[in-house]
């Protein structure tokens, strides 16, 4: 009896000087109940041991000399050999079913071109980790969904079909380090198919980017810059 198609999965992790968190992330990927077929760590100019840590954990290291997460993420997607490309940050810790859950969403829904999930904070007070992260992600979705006309993507927990990436790779703003790569990708991907939210991925993430008002303002500024890079051409009524 023929076996159902099983997508080949590549995990892409951009990194800059984050060796301790990267080691923890890579250990979690090795403990997945469905181990990814390929793990790519994109070294974006690290001066610490990030590249050595990646190699020690069996990941393939891609060197991206152009600064910025947009360039690093795009370099990883370009180099990937999988049918499904999953992306998370070095300071994330995926639950043991993350790869399987994300890949199954693609296999079960052929019309889905990208998936995204949530996360809990790993380093805030225990009782607040879930609620604080939920509040942040709900605010992000509430603001961006009307602007996009569909769900946004969340860079700490997303996936895209390789076939869709090949369609949008020449159009993403990979050379602008001042933009959010996940939001930029959402503008382009959403024109080509459905973005699906995947529940219960078990993802946790560091709260480091939210430790100060300055950091929060910077994230908001980059979000605004990403939206403005697409307007007026990409307003939802015209897409």
UniProtKB/TrEMBL annotation:
Entry GO CC: plasma membrane
Gene3D superfamilies recorded: Spore Coat Polysaccharide Biosynthesis Protein SpsA, Chain A
Keyword Transcription regulation: no
Keyword flag rRNA-binding: no
Cellular compartments annotated: Cell membrane
InterPro entries named among the record's database cross-references: Glyco_trans_2-like, Nucleotide-diphossugar_trans
Domain Glycosyltransferase 2-like: 10-121
SUPFAM superfamilies membership: Nucleotide-diphospho-sugar transferases
Main location: membrane
GO molecular function, one term: glycosyltransferase activity
Top-level lineage group: Bacteria
Alphabetized UniProt keyword annotations: Cell membrane, Glycosyltransferase, Membrane, Transferase
Pathway noted in the entry: Carotenoid biosynthesis; staphyloxanthin biosynthesis; staphyloxanthin from farnesyl diphosphate: step 4/5
Pfam families listed in its UniProt record: Glycos_transf_2
Family of the protein in this entry: Belongs to the glycosyltransferase 2 family. CrtQ subfamily.
General function of this protein: Catalyzes the glycosylation of 4,4'-diaponeurosporenoate, i.e. the esterification of glucose at the C1'' position with the carboxyl group of 4,4'-diaponeurosporenic acid, to form glycosyl-4,4'-diaponeurosporenoate. This is a step in the biosynthesis of staphyloxanthin, an orange pigment present in most staphylococci strains.
Cited PANTHER family: GLYCOSYLTRANSFERASE, GLYCOSYLTRANSFERASE 2-LIKE DOMAIN-CONTAINING PROTEIN
Protein name: 4,4'-diaponeurosporenoate glycosyltransferase
Native source species: Microbacterium aurantiacum
């Amino acid at each position: 009896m023929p076996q159902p198609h099983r997508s080949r999965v590549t995990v892409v992790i951009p990194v800059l000087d984050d060796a301790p968190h990267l080691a923890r992330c890579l250990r979690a990927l090795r403990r997945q109940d469905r181990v990814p077929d390929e793990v790519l760590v994109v070294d974006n100019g690290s001066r610490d041991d990030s590249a050595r840590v990646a190699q020690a954990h069996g990941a393939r290291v891609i060197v991206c000399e152009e600064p910025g997460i947009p360039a690093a993420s795009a370099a990883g997607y370009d180099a990937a050999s999988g049918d499904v490309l999953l992306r998370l940050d070095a300071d994330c810790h995926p639950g043991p079913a993350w790869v399987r859950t994300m890949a199954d969403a693609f296999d079960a829904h052929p019309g889905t071109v990208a998936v995204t999930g949530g996360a809990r904070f790993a380093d805030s007070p225990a009782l607040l980790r879930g609620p604080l992260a939920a509040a942040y992600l709900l605010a992000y979705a509430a603001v961006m969904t009307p602007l996009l006309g569909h769900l946004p993507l969340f860079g700490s927990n997303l996936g895209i079909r390789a076939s869709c990436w090949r369609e949008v790779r020449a159009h993403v703003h990979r050379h602008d380090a001042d933009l959010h790569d996940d939001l930029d990708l959402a503008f382009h991907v959403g024109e080509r198919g459905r973005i699906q939210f995947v529940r219960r991925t078990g993802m946790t993430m560091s709260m480091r980017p939210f430790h100060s008002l300055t950091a929060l303002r910077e994230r908001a500024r980059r979000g605004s810059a990403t939206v403005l890079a697409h307007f007026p051409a990409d307003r939802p009524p015209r897409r």
